[in-house]
């Protein structure tokens, strides 16, 4: 029985890496029919595959298009398995991250990749989308009791608004409670320090480690 479970987990992982979103649905159904843990299927199968895809992206063997297709396959599998999660798994407390592209910028592919990798790592993501007003980041972070605000910008003309979010957090008395993480094409470590952000992430994969470090996980 354990050998069969291991075999199916490896196939689920492989389907994510190979971007097989149709085949993965049938595999996920077969996995459940054998009575195996849905949580194991997600974490040891689907998430394992997404982590491998992320590594291939880091090594420049995969590019953005491939990584997004891998995520499609992962989510196709999750849609099958999620209904079989134990109540304990469904109700587990997760760290919350509010993420979005700063006001004036509509480039969201990088933000979407970061979202995928953070979700894969187990964070609860509140995605505000693109061209998000600076005040909305703070309002939602307060409402959702979020741990981190993750800001993205691919334009030098809008990146300065990231500092506005930090200033609003200070005025609202939330700066000590909410960490601010930034990233995007023109963003640098020096810029993050200059505006008072807590952290800077260069890549989507690195964002996971940065977020965990911020929360001492």
Sequence-ordered SSE layout with sheet pairings:
Elements: H1 2-17, H2 21-33, H3 38-58, H4 64-81, H5 87-90, E1 96-101, H6 109-120, E2 124-127, H7 134-144, E3 148-152, H8 161-171, E4 179-183, H9 189-195, E5 199-200, H10 204-214
Parallel strand pairs: 1-2, 1-3, 3-4, 4-5
Could you characterize what this model shows?
Pfam families: B12-binding, B12-binding_2. One of its GO terms (cellular component) is cytosol. This is Methylmalonyl-CoA mutase C-terminal domain-containing protein/methyltransferase cognate corrinoid proteins. By secondary structure, the protein is of the alpha/beta class. The protein is built from ten helices and five strands; from the N terminus they run H-H-H-H-H-E-H-E-H-E-H-E-H-E-H. Helix 7 crosses helix 8 (161-171). The protein is elongated. The model has no long low-confidence stretch (mean pLDDT 90).
Offer a concise description of the structure.
By secondary structure, the chain is α/β, with parallel strands linked by helices.
Order of helices and strands: HHHHHEHEHEHEHEH
Task: State the share of residues found in helices, binned by percent.
Answer: 55-70%
For the record, give the distance between the C-alpha atoms at the N and C termini, rounded to a whole number.
34 Å
Q: How many structural domains?
A: 2
């Amino acid at each position: 029985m354990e050998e069969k479970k291991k075999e199916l987990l490896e196939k689920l992982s492989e389907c994510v890496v190979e971007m097989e979103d149709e085949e993965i649905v049938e595999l996920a159904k077969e996995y459940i029919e054998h009575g195996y843990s849905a949580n194991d299927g997600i974490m040891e199968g689907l998430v394992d595959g997404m982590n491998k895809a992320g590594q291939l992206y880091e090594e420049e063997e995969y590019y953005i298009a491939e990584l997004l297709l891998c995520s499609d396959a992962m989510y196709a599998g999750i849609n099958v398995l999620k209904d079989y999660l134990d109540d304990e798994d469904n109700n587990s407390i997760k760290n919350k991250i509010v993420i979005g592209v700063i006001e004036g910028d509509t480039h969201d592919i990088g933000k979407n990749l970061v979202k995928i990798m953070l979700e894969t790592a187990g964070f609860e993501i509140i995605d505000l989308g693109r061209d998000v007003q600076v005040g909305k980041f703070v309002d939602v972070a307060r409402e959702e009791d979020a741990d981190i605000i993750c800001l993205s910008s691919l334009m030098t003309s809008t990146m300065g608004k990231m500092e506005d979010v930090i200033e609003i957090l200070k005025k609202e008395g939330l700066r000590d409670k909410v960490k601010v993480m930034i990233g995007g094409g023109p963003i640098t470590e020096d810029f993050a320090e200059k505006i008072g952000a807590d952290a800077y992430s260069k890549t989507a994969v690195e964002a996971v480690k940065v977020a965990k470090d911020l929360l001492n996980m």
